[in-house]
């Protein structure tokens, strides 16, 4: 089993219902921001981190994503044909492809600026202390995030739930050692189950992203993300 992650799970199976008519005829990962599909923005981060093994999970209009990925031998497909398995079930289904040990996971509905998020995570990963390392940022630093924050970051790097208090936003990128995932009875479940176990065991950590991030889960996120990218490119 590897101690350092070398494979990434890209979550791309959702219905994208918050995007309204924009996802009536296409999956959300293929919506374009600044002339490039959201999925390709995510894949830029993957290639920028030097990762050569990636798995994309597919469900809603997955054939379009599969066609989009034709010709890229480094990206495997994990089909969720009967139902969406959520983040936990989707990761578990893809583990035979990803291999044993810690893996990156990356959401495909956001756009980034600044330091590569996967490299930031890799540089801080310590398998002797960590079962999870989540990328975080203050809500005031990012765009499209709704809420007061997901996690509190302690001085030693451990995280706890914010539970409604002001905290840091989770940016949809992490390194996770999915131990215990095989014991969860439900077929479809969230990775929050594993996070809570790891928080209780003192093995869930966080690291701050120093650049920009924009959630593109709603139509207005497209313009916000394009403005953020334009501002970053103008510097």
The fraction of residues in strands falls at 15-25%
How many domains? The number is 1
Helix content: 25-40%
Biggest sheet character: 7 strands, mixed
Number of helices: 6
Radius of gyration: 17 Å
What's the CATH architecture? Alpha-Beta Complex
Helix-strand pattern, N to C? EEEHEHEHEEHEEEEHEEH
CATH topology title: Spore Coat Polysaccharide Biosynthesis Protein SpsA, Chain A
Class computed from helices, strands and strand pairing: alpha/beta
Number of E strands? 13
Q: How far apart are the termini?
A: 42 Å
User: Overall mean pLDDT score?
Assistant: 96
Biggest sheet, spatial arrangement of strands: 5-4-1-6-11-8-12
CATH top level?
Answer: Alpha Beta
Could you state the CATH homologous superfamily? Spore Coat Polysaccharide Biosynthesis Protein SpsA, Chain A
Shape: globular
| Uncertain residue ranges | none
């Amino acid at each position: 089993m590897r101690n350092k992650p070398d494979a990434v799970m890209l979550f791309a199976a959702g219905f994208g219902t918050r995007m309204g008519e924009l996802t009536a005829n296409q999956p959300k990962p293929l919506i374009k921001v600044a002339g490039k599909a959201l999925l390709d923005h995510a894949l830029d981060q993957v290639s920028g981190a030097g990762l050569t093994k990636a798995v994309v999970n597919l469900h809603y209009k997955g054939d379009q994503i599969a066609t989009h990925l034709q010709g890229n031998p480094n990206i495997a497909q994990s089909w969720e044909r009967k139902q969406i398995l959520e983040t936990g079930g989707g990761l578990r289904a893809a583990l035979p492809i990803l291999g044993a040990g810690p893996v990156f996971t990356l959401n495909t509905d956001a756009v980034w600026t600044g330091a590569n998020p996967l490299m930031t995570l890799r540089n801080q990963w310590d398998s002797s202390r960590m079962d999870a390392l989540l990328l975080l940022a203050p809500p005031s630093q990012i765009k499209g995030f709704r809420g007061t924050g997901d996690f509190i970051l302690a001085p030693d790097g451990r995280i706890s739930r914010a539970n409604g208090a002001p905290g840091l936003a989770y940016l949809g990128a992490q390194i996770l050692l999915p131990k215990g995932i095989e014991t969860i009875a439900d077929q479809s479940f969230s990775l929050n189950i594993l996070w809570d176990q790891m928080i209780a065991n003192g093995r869930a950590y966080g690291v701050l992203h120093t650049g920009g991030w924009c959630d593109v889960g709603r139509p207005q996120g497209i313009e916000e993300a394009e403005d953020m990218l334009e501002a970053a490119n103008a510097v």
